[in-house]
Design goal:
heterodimer, A: alpha/beta, Rossmann fold, 2 domains, four-stranded parallel sheet, B: two-stranded antiparallel ribbon, 13 helices, 4 strands
Amino acid sequence: MSDKQTKTSREKYAEVAYYPGCALEGTGHAYNRSTKALGKALGLKLKEVDNWNCCGAMEVKNIDPKLQTYLSSRVMSIAANKMKMDVVMAPCNGCYHNLKRAEWDLQNDDKSKEVVGRLSQKAGHETYQAGQVETIHALDWIKDGIGEDGLKQRVKNSLKGVKIANYYGCMYTRPRHIFPEKDAGAGSESTSKPHFMDDLLAAAGAENVDFPLKTACCGGAHTLSDSDTSTRLVANILQTAEAAGAEVIATECPTCHSGLEMHQIRAEKTLGIKTSVKIIYFTQLLGLALGLKPRTVGLQENVSDSFAYVKEKGLA
Amino acid sequence: MPIHEKSLIRPENLAVHEHLEIEGVDVSGHWSTFIESRVVSDYNEAMEEEIAALPGGEHIHRCWQCGSCTNSCTVNALNPDFNPRYWIYLIRMGMESELLRDKDIIWQCVSCHKCTHVCPRDVVPEGVMKATAHWLELKGHTPKSHSMIFDEVFSEQVFETGKIEDGRVVKRFFKRTGQALRQPWMEDMVKGMLRHLPVSLLARMGLATLIAPRTRDWGDARAAINEYVEEQQAAQRRALGLDDLVRAAQREI
């Protein structure tokens, strides 16, 4: 533990265990591609968690929260015990949230600890012990691993004139008790007004608009099972972003991202609400700013078509 | 935002008398509407304990009714009838018939965690909503919601293979809920996606729906998880007295 504390974030995040999760191998593949491309361009090393499993997403907890804790703990156990890594980086909000949640449960809930110990033993792997790894989000990884100044020095195509609404969603900040490092004074992330994505995109030259729905819910959990609710929630986010003057909504979660894309189309079909705001992962935007090609950051894998837009802004 | 609580004065509790005279005063008509007294006699004293026995409901007893959950609620902003504070009150009071009036919307909680974030008593209202929706289904008050079916389809695949493949989950979900896979808005979305995708990626995506991605050597984990799920489900059935209910029903037949 003392070793980890004396190391700076720069040193710690130079090489991290990478947990892409299921969404990044499916609908969120553009996020996977752009995260890897960004790491390569910035000289940050990613070692994918060996033989990982699903963290439980938003569904397994509704069957039993302790199973979600077990599933997430297995991922951290591999990173800590097999790969001997100190840091796990998860770009997906769902994965990030669940690993954090598992960490908190294992520190504070004896019943969860007992269930995780029992299942790990039966499954034949070492039981994860709270505190063995530090789980971070892709935003922490860039913000603390490179920083705004580091990013500024590497920008080749400034995002000048790109008006962005930064959308963080639910799982990155709530509930606050599972994120003890947030709301911890100057320089830390805020759970009520998160700003890490704003900071990074501003460093790349973008113009962040004042967006009041940064942590609003897109209804991602019910994208398919209660589509009308999701469509109304997303339509509100899209319209508010446009009213705030945004041309782009920057995302940092594959569920939010595909939810916004899907329901942008559905809102037009079912509610007659047409919006043209582009939906782009923050890793794609930063990649473009570093001079990477649109295809290298997977712009072709987005449903929301932003090729013409990035060209117009001189980013392609 | 103020919470607009629903009124207990409902149309069926209003009495309008066409001809009524009380102590020489004519009180006929709408100008003097009477409210029938409301008697609650069907308390279900086991309800709180049963919901507390389901995953997520454990901390319901901590609630002191501040209303922060409803005040912050995403779904409440869309539908004022969606009121976690009120439902927690009804559950703790055992007012089952009142709760059942809202049985078809409780499952709509989107798990945004705003309530859990603001709750000063760590009730975890989000968990209580899930436990309550689950309770309604287990007791037979509501059919399985699409949300629960989605959770089951999703979790089954995770338990089986260790991983998820989106396309397969979506297909199984639509099949199990009896919906057509080709929704008009979905076709538009797929068309949008196909515009720029290279053939190699399409081939990879197509392959993924045929050969599900899986975690290697998952067998022991699968067995451990399935054993745990069975053990938990048996405990839940005991807590809710479901086996007794089934036996009683069989005797009647």
